Amino acid sequence: MDPSTLPRSPLISAPPPVIHDTISALRESYLSAQLKGNRREALRLLVDEGILRGIPLPTLHLEIIQEAQREIGRLWQENHISVAQEHLATAISQLALSHLYRHLPRDPSNGRTVMISCVEGELHELGARVASDFLEMAGFDVRFLGANVPTEHLVREVRAQKPDLLALSVTMTYHIPALRQAVAAVREVAPLLPLAVGGLAFSWVPGLEAELGVPFFGKDARELVASACRMFEV
Fold it and tell me: Do the strands 195-198 and 165-169 form a parallel or antiparallel pair, or are they unpaired?
């Protein structure tokens, strides 16, 4: 079944037209609030200038919060902001996602469970959290384990929960060995479990997903959802 034929999904249906300049202006204002450490203003922007003005939640997730966070990462890498400022900005985005969670539109349950985890040592969980929200909007039951999950504990949860799909996230390239270790360990205990991998590290190491032999590679939250829908024909 082609996911593009599913009219209910808030992730796949065409969103209402939104003026690009409006999105850009909102993103810049949100980024400014992050850099100032102004949590109240950041949330006000997302609600008053976002939700109440009809901007779809997937757009707020991907084009406001995630894009602003990528800019924060760039500023940190180029030493324009400190580690403390980066942590402050990231905490605001985590708070924003928590606040938006209760507003998520959800399709009816499709009966499939997806487990999402950052590999051991990986502390950047925001992208994986966005992917979790998108999967939940599409009707999946999500088990989000968060950042820095030791491989042995990941394997333990896979055994206990028996998900239909495991998605692993890695942002920094120096955590790729941990990703390889996690994939190998999970395949030992659940050889038939489909795996998905994603994260910024894959843009720096092209072909890694092929090397790992994963069934599909979610480059972003929308692609992960579309791939999962195709795999399970939901």
Answer: parallel
Model confidence, pTM: 0.86
Go through 37-52 and write b for each residue having 16 or more CB atoms within 10 A of its CB, e for each that does not.
eebebbbebbbebbee
Three-class secondary structure of residue 225 per DSSP? helix
Positive or negative torsion for Cα 222, 225, 231, 234: negative
Give the model confidence (pLDDT) of 40-76 as tens digits.
Answer: 999 999 999 999 999 999 999 999 999 999 999 999 9
* Ranges of H-type helices in 37-170: 39-44, 57-59, 67-77, 83-101, 126-137, 151-161
Q: CA–CA separation, 221 vs 43, rounded Å?
A: 22
- The answer to whether the beta carbons of residues 69 and 126 sit under 8 Å apart is yes
Separation CA 125–CA 55 (nearest Å): 24
Q: Where are the alpha helices (DSSP H) in the chain?
A: 20-36, 39-44, 57-59, 67-77, 83-101, 126-137, 151-161, 176-189, 201-204, 208-212, 221-232
Q: What angle do CA 221, 179, 121 make, to 5 degrees?
A: 95
CA distance 188 to 190: 6
